[in-house]
Specification:
The protein is of the alpha+beta class and 556 residues long. It has four domains: 167 residues, no CATH class; 163 residues, no CATH class; 143 residues, Glucose Permease (Domain IIA) (Distorted Sandwich), CATH 2.70.70; 31 residues. It contains 16 helices and 19 strands. A hairpin with a 2-residue loop joins β7 and β8. α2 packs antiparallel against α5, α6 runs antiparallel to α8 and α11 packs across α12. The C terminus is likely disordered.
Length: 556
């Protein structure tokens, strides 16, 4: 996959930075170009594509980390698509709610700045080599202060590398490095130490640089934020490198020395330092702290008042999200199987089984997301259908109208109020497991909701099917509902029954009709309105009769 998808990998990473940059610019306000107006939502659409491209780029990198047997970074890369997909989802919410979320825009801008700097340095071997050599020289300078002599080897652009030093695709994974050679004091059993791009602290510095530059704050505050973070990070990283070199070459803890020095002491020390530096920068840039907290609080983001609802049912189990995320994480592990085996590399992980499991999970998640969809429905006049589905009964008998609508698995299972009114009562009745389309389903689990309306009392019964006996109600007794308002969800196969008085009712559906929630099922004309119509029709006749009588009297 690394070879076959190398070009695609470059396309994804370059496109992501470009799209996020354009998205940030356009999502601030509407813009006019060449006589055409580009609204803010186009910026969010660009950002959606940008986040997804970034997620796919890291997905492709999973195979590399499997090949070098680094499961931690492989897992992080595999989780990138669900994470960036979540950010893309919030860009969609910004379009739906017509409201930008500034912390998310800040994150997009920071990603462009930080990612652009790192991409520029990492992809140009000559530039990366210069930075690595500079950091290596200054790192051993700290050792020279204590009389510990070191020399540096030449810049190594990668084993057997004979390609361009101006641009190198990331998929090549050929690290530029500079070897550190001890001047006679290295333990013979100690491994050699090389300074690579990761040893320059470039990642840490550009994160702060991007965050500071993209924060909306006075220039002086941003300058102070830069000064209290970037120079200290650079200096502390030089000290860290010197300590790792000294501990490794002294072979302090035997063969585990480099691991403890680099992965434990170095990383833990760096983490502690970054925490203190973050506290310092937040002192000068509280706006940056607000942006970070805003990103962390994305799951708590609230919809503005009267905003359109999201296209998924309220009450959808979180298990649907978990299945989707796990399927997306496992997929790149399994997709790498053929490529890894073709290179003759043995991996201890059951990649084929992981591949099969990921397909099963993704298929299930696609079905569940489709089932729990909640699309827009146009609300028509009169009494409307509370559900999508097949009309099984539409009768007027014994003074009552009875309408029964059966919902298949492919139907939307969110139910709506058939008419404006007040919830009088709700009664839950446990029941059996019969299919919702059978006569025995009248004994299934159900939720009976009674509404006080202009028709009188309307009884709406939500009946569960045989798979999952669960009905979720969105309303409570004594609450008022609008016509077409969502009032509940039935999990899987189900049925909805309506019952109300037939007086003044003109039924508009029949058995066998297929209908969507919000469409008219009946028209109600109150007797008072009929009386008014009769008066309007009879009034001209009465006036004409009086005129005739008056005329007759005049002739007499």
């Amino acid at each position: 996959m690394a070879t076959d998808l190398s070009l695609l990998s470059e396309v994804f990473v370059i496109s992501s930075l470009f799209l996020l940059g354009i998205g940030y610019f356009l999502s601030e306000r509407g813009h006019n170009f060449l006589g055409k107006h580009f609204p803010k939502k186009i910026g969010h659409q660009f950002s959606i594509l940008g986040w997804l491209c970034l997620g796919f780029f890291w997905w492709i990198e999973v195979e590399y980390y499997i090949l070098i047997k680094d499961p931690v970074n492989a897992l992080i890369c595999a989780a990138a698509l669900p994470f960036f997909g979540y950010l893309a989802y919030h860009e969609y919410l910004s379009i739906l709610w017509k409201e930008s979320y500034e912390p998310l825009r800040w994150l997009a801008a920071m990603t462009v700045v930080a990612g652009g700097i790192y991409f520029f340095v990492e992809r140009i071997p000559l530039l990366a080599g210069w930075l690595i050599h500079l950091v290596a020289e200054q790192s051993i300078w700290f050792l020279d202060i204590f009389g510990i002599g070191n020399t540096l080897g030449p810049i190594d652009y990668g084993e057997n590398w004979d390609g361009s030093r101006v641009y190198r695709p990331g998929s090549e994974h050929e690290e530029v490095r500079v070897a550190v050679e001890a001047d006679g004091w290295k333990d013979p059993l100690a491994p050699s130490v090389n300074i690579v791009l990761a040893c320059t602290a470039l990642q840490s510095m550009i994160i702060f640089v991007g965050g500071v530059i993209c924060t909306k704050a006075p220039f002086r505050s941003r300058l102070n934020g830069f000064l209290v973070t970037v120079p200290p990070i650079y200096i502390l990283n030089l000290i860290r490198n010197a300590v790792v070199i000294w501990l490794t070459y002294e072979h302090v803890w035997g063969d585990e020395t480099f691991f403890w020095a680099h992965a434990v002491i170095g990383k833990v020390g760096s983490l502690i330092a970054l925490i203190f530096l973050a506290i310092a920068v937040f002192h000068f840039l509280p706006e940056m702290q607000d942006s970070i907290l805003g990103v962390i609080d994305l799951p708590l983001r609230e919809a503005p008042k009267n905003a359109p609802d999201i296209p998924f049912a309220k009450g959808m189990p979180m298990m649907v999200v978990y299945i989707t995320v796990f399927g997306l994480i496992l997929f790149p592990f399994g997709a790498s199987a053929d490529s890894i085996h073709s290179q003759g590399i043995d991996v201890d992980w059951p990649l084929e089984e992981i591949y099969a499991l990921s397909f099963v999970l993704l298929f299930i998640s696609a079905f569940l997301l489709f089932f729990y969809r909640d699309p827009y429905r146009e609300i028509q006049k009169g009494i409307i259908s509370p559900a999508d589905g097949l009309v099984q009964e539409a009768t007027m008998k014994n003074g009552m109208v009875r309408i029964s609508i059966f919902m298949n698995l492919q139907n939307v299972h969110v139910n709506r109020s058939p008419i404006k009114g007040r919830i009088i009562s709700q009664k839950h009745k446990p029941g059996g497991y019969s299919p919702a389309f059978s006569k025995d389903s009248d004994k299934n689990e159900r939720l009976i909701t009674k509404l006080d309306t202009k028709l009188g009392t309307v009884k709406m019964t939500q009946i569960a099917g045989f798979l999952i006996r669960r009905i979720v109600s969105y309303v409570k007794p004594d609450s008022k509902v609008k016509k077409g308002e969502r009032i509940g969800l039935i999990h899987f196969g189900s049925r909805v029954d309506l019952a109300f008085e037939e007086s003044g009712i003109d039924l508009k559906v029949k058995k066998g009709d297929r209908i969507l929630a919000g469409q008219t099922v009946a028209i109600f004309t109150p007797m008072s309105e009929l009386s008014t119509v009769e008066k309007v029709v009879e009034a001209p006749k009465r006036i004409l009769s009086k005129l005739k009588a008056t005329a007759s009297e005049g002739f007499d």
